[in-house]
Design goal:
Keywords: Membrane, Transmembrane, Transmembrane helix. It comes from Lentzea albida. With about 180 residues, the protein is of the alpha+beta class. The protein folds into two domains: about 45 residues; about 90 residues, Roll (PH-domain like). It is built from four helices and six strands, in the order ααββββββαα. β4 and β5 form a beta hairpin. α1 runs antiparallel to α2. It is elongated and about 95 Å long.
């Protein structure tokens, strides 16, 4: 899952990388330095955009941004919801967010900017539906967080059952009142 920003950032990175050698051409020593830095910055942005987006794996969600990589395990996710967030520092948009046991993880790399006001909520709702389907698929097969029945205790013989029952009866009062 990725957005068109991946291609916009790739083009921007290539453009900045191309400007670097042009700035260094036939210049003084500092033109070579700054041209090399421009080339390095542009090439880094272009290279990092190849992994930009959210990948659904068997272990969970892997979010790749320009400057970070975050993995959230499926068993930690309780659900998904659309949430308002900031994209590209100052633009507000709607993006899917994973509701975790401890907090929320906003998938900012899936956020959209569009001049069509009805497109962003519809696309975000589609992404939330895809994420919920992937979570439901995980829960069908996971014995930790899913609905699979847990393994039963091995069957005991008559002596084992009698011991367990006696331990239960003779285990003391616990938090029951003595007066009945």
């Amino acid at each position: 899952m990725h957005t068109r920003w991946r291609w916009v950032l790739f083009g921007l990175g290539i453009a900045v990388a191309a400007i670097g050698p042009l700035a260094a051409k036939d210049g003084p020593w500092y033109a070579y330095l700054f041209g090399g830095l421009w080339f390095l910055m542009g090439a880094t942005v272009a290279w990092r955009t190849f992994n930009l987006g959210t990948k659904l794996t068997a272990e969970g969600l892997t979010s790749h941004g320009l400057d970070h990589q975050t993995t959230v395990e499926w068993c930690d996710v309780q659900g998904f919801e659309p949430k308002r967030s900031r994209n590209l520092v100052l633009f507000h948009t709607i993006t899917p967010a994973a509701q975790l046991r401890r907090g929320t993880h906003v998938l900012t790399e899936l956020s959209l900017l569009s001049i069509k006001k009805d497109f962003v909520p519809r696309r975000t709702a589609q992404q939330v539906t895809e994420l919920e389907q992937a979570l439901a698929k995980h829960r069908k097969t996971c014995s930790v967080c899913g609905t699979q029945p847990k393994a039963l205790a091995p069957p005991q013989g008559i002596v084992g059952r009698l011991r367990a029952r006696l331990r239960e009866l003779m285990g003391g009062n616990g938090d029951r009142s003595i007066a009945r």
